Amino acid sequence: MKPIQVGLLGFGTVGSGVAKVLARNAEEIGRRAGRAIEVKRVAVRNIDKARAAAPLAVTEGLAFGNDMQAVVDDPDINIVCELIGGTTLAKDLVLRAIANGKHVVTANKALLAIHGNEIFAAAQQAGVMVMFEAAVAGGIPIIKALREGLTANRIEWLAGIINGTSNFILTEMRDKGAAFADVLAEAQKLGYAEADPTFDIEGHDAAHKLTILAAIAFGIPMQFDKAYLEGISKLTREDIAYAEELGYRIKLLGIAKRRANGIELRVHPTLIPAKRIIANVDGVMNAVVVQGDAVGQTLYSGRGAGSEPTASAVVADLVDVTRLLTADPEHRVPHLAFQPDRLADLPILPIAEVETCYYLRLQAHDQPGVMADVTRILADAGISIDAMMQKEPAEGEKIVDIVILTHVAIERSVDAAIARIEALETIAGRITKLRLENLDR
Ligand code: NDP
Ligand code: HSE
Q1: Residue 202 counted as an annotated binding residue
Q2: Residue of the CA atom closest to atom 28 of ligand 1
């Protein structure tokens, strides 16, 4: 049978990985797909740089060029593989490919989280597939698992470490005491970070991925603009250490939770009990826990970024598209798991409505009555305390750190109580608030 022809847009970390994996495993992939998958053309900005990104054995047969549109318009190309990133040129090229009747495989989570509703509608209209396994959690087949493997379940919640760069930074800082900037530079060198690494550090990338996961889990449209996001840049060594003392690890988690009145969609540093497997997922590894009503909890873990782990997911999509090319579009698995005319109109809840446990760190004057005042304010707000720890003041210091863990409370009440506590004369500076998830049910 005639080989499937792929047009690669971009030949950086992921694009070069795709070419390497396709070349190395060509025989196995062909046996799985039912026909060979060949890269017909590659479009990049800098051809010399692209040629240097993979061994000669991989690049010598590839037709490199600068003209992205020519690839998308090439009548011989069956699948356009978008691996350039960004939301402007990538969007134009993907929509043009769809309009040309081509299937699309992309690793671009920003593009899908922001323009996914438009892109999937266009693909539905054109009867083509848009596949995006690599867009979430790198090499972990979490899209496939959620969209197909868990299709019997009503998903209650999911929570994941879905940004490799920030998990790598947190791990190196905790285990080796490394400096934030040094570890970030290492993550960039290893090809983990986004073109703009603030996307990794400030939670945007995780929120893009969470937006996609929530759409598939709950059958809702992509609503990135309603996701709450908070990154790891303000985390302090003290908080990481105090959390450890109390039996918790801090991870940047993306959490999507079904509530009676809507969906919680939030990314933030989160304390997780150290005994949970996900709390021990370190470095560039990602992990996603999914709670389904029938299956209970399932956990998916693997490399969340990097060249070949991500290429593994891209190539899986190329094989899937190849296998399904001749299937009637009506009978393909819907892009977002649910039939497009059956999406739910569930609101995304504002962060003030979130219900979870909290870690609060106060700096207090070491004098009688402080604890009584603080606990009274929490009690008045209906917030119940789970644990409390007071640190010894440093030599000659009169200010002590007090750490409080709460039971589940509504964020709005916690914020109101924090404002009242901060107004006490015996409290110095601002209170640090982190969210805590037990992930037990
Ligand atoms: P790179 O920066 O390593 O590669 C991008 C490639 O696209 C380069 O070949 C670059 O060419 C080309 N390119 C970018 N912009 C243009 C443009 N305007 N015109 C022509 N060519 C362009 O990125 P990655 O491979 O890391 O990422 C690609 C996509 O995959 C992104 O959407 C990213 O979010 C996603 N992703 C990345 C992962 C990773 O671990 N790196 C994991 C999962 C997803 P040139 O070098 O010549 O500029
Ligand atoms: N920058 C992303 C990360 C790449 O670090 O997770 C994988 O999507």
Answers
A1: no
A2: 83
Protein residue closest via CA to atom 6 of ligand 1: 10
Q: Do 408 and 362 belong to one domain?
A: yes
For 271, the domain range is: 142-303
Pocket of ligand 2 (CB under 6 A): 138, 163-165, 192-194, 200, 205, 304-305
Residue 16 in marked binding region: yes
State yes or no: 9 annotated in a binding site: yes
Q: How far is the CA of 48 from the centre of ligand 1 (A)?
A: 15
My answer on whether 261 and 274 are in the same domain is yes
Could you tell me if 133 and 144 are in contact, meaning their C-beta atoms sit under 8 angstroms apart? yes
Spatial contact of 63 and 42, defined as CB atoms under 8 Å apart: yes
Same domain for 373 and 399? yes
Query: What does the block give as tokens for 36?
Result: 């060979």
Considering its fold, how many domains does the chain have in total? 3
Segments in 35-179 forming alpha helices (H):
47-51, 56-59, 68-73, 89-99, 109-126, 142-144, 164-176
Query: 40 an active-site residue?
Result: no
- Same domain membership, residue 329 and residue 284: no
Cα angle at 84 between 216 and 72, to 5 degrees? 90
Same domain, 204 and 279: yes
Same domain flag for 26 and 43: yes
> Binding residue per annotation — 414?
no
**Number of the ligand 1 atom closest to the C-alpha atom of 108:** 32
Is 293 buried (19+), middle (13-18) or exposed (0-12) by CB count in 10 A? exposed
Walk along the chain (441 residues) and give the pLDDT tens digit of each residue.
899 999 999 999 999 999 999 999 999 999 999 999 999 999 999 999 999 999 999 999 999 999 999 999 999 999 999 999 999 999 999 999 999 999 999 999 999 999 999 999 999 999 999 999 999 999 999 999 999 999 999 999 999 999 999 999 999 998 998 899 999 999 999 999 999 999 999 999 999 999 999 999 999 999 999 999 999 999 998 999 999 999 999 999 999 999 999 999 999 999 999 999 999 999 999 999 999 999 999 999 999 999 999 999 999 999 999 999 988 888 899 999 999 999 999 999 999 999 999 999 999 998 899 999 999 999 999 999 999 999 888 888 889 999 999 999 999 999 999 999 999 999 999 999 999 999 998
**Do 89 and 37 fall within a single domain?**
yes
Q: pTM of the full predicted structure?
A: 0.97
Ligand nearest to the CA of 197: 2
Pairing assessment for the beta strands 262-273 and 427-436 based on DSSP bridges = parallel
The one catalytic residue in 40, 102, 209, 251 is 209
Q: How far is the CA of 42 from the centre of ligand 1 (A)?
A: 13
108 lines ligand 1 (CB under 6 A): yes
